[in-house]
């Protein structure tokens, strides 16, 4: 069989091109100093204060942390692979990938968000010279603008000046945190099924990672130099499924497997976005069964509130979660139950903004209720619990009127 020399030359040239392109891919992790870690922890702690345990109680669960395998792609919890080019902006791509994943899981919206906006504006990072994804979360948390869409601030593979923008994505940060110390495999899995993709740092400057095409990367643990996202696991392979930001030519269409506790993998962070208002009539679930009664938990955002999420649990078998984001709107958050006595648990997670500082407050109400007909209650924050940012909630007769 005669070999086409031109074809061989073309293949070799293309392989050389792609290998060279891979060598030029950016990395860009800048590990925070001890003081910077303390400042990140302080920002998050001051924001959520004593309510983290209550916050965790209301987290949705999108998978089984005890399952032998898990893949966010199987539950429509992941956006497409992107390419950071030669810019050291992996930290921004990792942050955006987690935000996009959270938005898909919480709001069922597939959005392409802007890494360039973070490269341009996150002052605690150095743009294409490297940065840290928790700095991006902190900046977004304190900034009350939407996360920009890719079409609004497209990626340019370079540093540009920061400019203000009026975002149209309806994506804001509700909360973020990181797994402290050296978390167990079980802790990482639990975070993944509760929050979606996790930002993580690892050691990529090795041939196993750079030239990866399949199998499991088990490079020696060394100082991390690159940020990716964990998007699943496989206990049979004893490996995490990662999504990289070097385009689809790397790995298995941009994804790869990294062994548990190898390759310097560390610094696991999660983020949650705010829940959107109900926008589809079908989501309102009108009462169709005449034997059911309607309970309407009404609320109007207060002068300091920029967001509130309402978690309603009835008799352990009915859970509803509602988002509220607009001023001067009376929200009707309805659930339907059978007539009679019921146990209920109501938790609110509210973001307030005062003097350009944002923080969370929480409300909680537990008790029993006897309903025989449709009823409407307003939610009222009462006394603090142990001088914390957690308040007792009271259900009172609905007398809210708008525009009077």
Automatic annotation (TrEMBL):
Domain spans labelled Peptidase C1A papain C-terminal: 66-273
Matches recorded under InterPro entries: Papain-like_cys_pep_sf, Pept_cys_AS, Peptidase_C1A, Peptidase_C1A_C, Peptidase_C1A_papain-like
Pfam families: Peptidase_C1 (PF00112)
Top-level lineage group: Bacteria
GO biological process, one term: proteolysis
Ranges in coiled-coil conformation: none
One MF term in the entry's GO annotations: cysteine-type peptidase activity
Entry keywords, A to Z: Signal
Cleavable signal peptide: 1-21
Family the UniProt entry places it in: Belongs to the peptidase C1 family.
Protein name: Peptidase C1A papain C-terminal domain-containing protein
Organism name: Bizionia arctica
């Amino acid at each position: 069989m005669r070999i086409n020399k031109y074809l061989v030359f073309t293949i070799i040239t293309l392989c050389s091109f792609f290998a060279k392109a891979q060598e030029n891919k950016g990395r860009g992790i800048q590990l925070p100093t001890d003081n910077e870690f303390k400042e990140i922890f302080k920002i998050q702690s001051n924001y959520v204060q004593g309510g983290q345990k209550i916050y965790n109680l209301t987290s949705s669960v999108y998978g089984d942390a005890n399952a032998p395998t898990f893949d966010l792609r199987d539950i429509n919890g992941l956006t497409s692979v992107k390419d950071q080019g030669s810019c050291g902006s992996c930290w921004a791509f990792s942050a955006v990938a987690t935000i996009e994943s959270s938005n898909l899981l919480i709001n069922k919206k597939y959005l392409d968000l802007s890494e360039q906006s973070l490269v341009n504006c996150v002052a605690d990072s150095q743009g294409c010279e490297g940065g840290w994804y928790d700095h991006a979360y902190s900046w977004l948390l304190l900034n009350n603008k939407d996360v920009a869409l890719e079409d609004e601030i497209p990626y340019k593979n370079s540093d540009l000046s920061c400019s203000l923008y009026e975002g149209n994505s309806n994506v804001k940060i509700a909360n973020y945190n990181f797994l402290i110390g050296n978390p167990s495999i079980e802790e990482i899995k639990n975070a993944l099924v509760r929050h979606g993709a996790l930002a993580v740092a690892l050691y990529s400057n090795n041939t196993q990672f750079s030239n990866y095409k399949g199998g499991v990367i088990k490079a020696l643990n060394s100082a991390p130099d690159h940020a990716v996202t964990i998007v699943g696991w496989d206990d049979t392979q004893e490996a995490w499924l990662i999504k990289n930001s070097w385009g689809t030519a790397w790995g298995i269409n941009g994804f790869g497997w990294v062994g548990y506790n190898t390759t310097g993998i560390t610094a696991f962070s999660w983020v949650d976005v705010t829940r959107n208002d109900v926008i589809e009539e079908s989501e309102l679930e009108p009462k169709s069964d005449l034997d059911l009664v309607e309970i309407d938990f009404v609320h109007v955002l207060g002068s300091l509130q920029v967001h509130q999420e309402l978690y309603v649990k009835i008799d352990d078998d009915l859970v509803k979660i509602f988002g509220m984001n607009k001023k001067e709107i009376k929200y009707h958050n309805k659930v339907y139950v059978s007539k009679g006595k019921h146990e209920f648990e109501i938790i609110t997670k509210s973001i307030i903004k005062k003097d350009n500082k944002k923080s969370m407050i929480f409300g909680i109400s537990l008790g029993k209720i006897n309903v025989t007909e449709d009823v409407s209650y307003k939610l009222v924050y009462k006394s603090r619990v142990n001088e914390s940012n957690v308040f007792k909630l009271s259900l009172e007769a609905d007398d809210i009127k708008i525009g009077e």
